[in-house]
Amino acid sequence: MPTLRTLTLALAVLIFVGVFCMAIARAQQTAPRSTATDGVYTDVQATRGQAVYVEQCQACHGTALAGGLGPPLAGAVFLRGWDTFTLADLVDKIQNTMPATSAGTLSRAQATDLVAHLLRANAFSVGTAELRADDSLAQIALVGPPGAAALSGAAAQGADARPPGNLAQVMRGILFPSSNLIFNVQNSDPGEQKMGWQPGTTPFGWADWGAGIYSGWELVDYAAIALAESAPLLLAPDRRCENGKPVPVEREDWVRYTADLVDAGKAAYRASQSRNRDAVIEVTNQIADACLLCHEAYRDKPGGTTIDPSNKAARCVP
Questions:
Q1: What is the residue-averaged pLDDT of the chain?
Q2: Is the pLDDT of residue 31 over 80?
Q3: Distance from chain centroid for Cα 304
Q4: Rounded mean pLDDT of 168-197?
Q5: Residue 135 to residues 29, 86, 206: CA-CA distances in angstroms?
């Protein structure tokens, strides 16, 4: 007669097997079941998407999808950037964040048609059924078609380590707010106790981030460390500019500008550690100079238009 311990063990095994089978079933439901190489769109659908592209996307991404103000949407760089995603991810990206000047104005159907246009432009085979603007998009993986151009050399070998963000995102997410925290010392004494940011009562400002949680001087410390520690991210291999062009990580001047920013961050930290406001104000000039030299060479490019006076299409080009 089975003992209580035996029955308990058997029940535990049954529960484990059940949970394991459920996990497998869920994985099978969510994992892509086909790829974009399987002929998942029609020529008619791609033509509809092309019309939307001309009206909504061409101004930034170029007539031939080769990039301009925005990154290219055809070729090895585009495919490599999306080769671990599904068509649902790409449709979501388009519907939620594009066009950049009026994000969220495209319908789900329009975004899906646009993806069909991108597939045709990237030499994916045409099929007999249209892409549906529903959950089935999550079952189709976006991988490069046979014979598609691929990146080679060290970049290809480091495919899994490619940076997830472009240069502008790193700048605006880390370097810009951190620099502003330090520049704010010119207007506000870090030694004065500040109230924390109150949602719904005052506008959120990066210069006041963490106020009420950390002291003003701690915030300056953290911002300076963020500059020094994150500046080398600008040298990450295969980093792309906002317009899709490669960041010139191997150019001597780019390496020098990055080193200057690291030095400026370290100098700001030393100044902050002295708890001397005047010392920090003095070092803001070093930060500003480090940023300005790089911006003049690679960001503030001439030849823009009234709509785009800074000529984003030429950024990252020496």
A1: 84
A2: no
A3: 24
A4: 88
A5: 11, 11, 38
Q: In terms of Cα–Cα distance, which of 141, 165, 185, 194 is closest to 274?
A: 185
The residue with greater pLDDT, 193 or 111, is 111
Tokens for 198, please give them: 């109150």
Average pLDDT, stretch 34-44? 95
All domains in the chain, ordered by first residue: 34-158 (1.10.760.10), 167-314 (1.20.120)
Rounded to whole angstroms, the Cα distance separating 89 from 92 reads 5
Amino acid at 142: L
Q: Can you point out the beta strands (E) in the chain?
A: 34-35, 140-141
Cβ-based neighbours of 175, under 8 Å, separated by 6 or more: 226, 227, 230, 231, 261
What is the spatial distance between Cα 262 and Cα 284, in angstroms, rounded to a whole number? 13
> Does 35 score more than 60 pLDDT?
yes
The helix/strand/coil state of 100 is coil
pTM above 0.90, yes or no: no
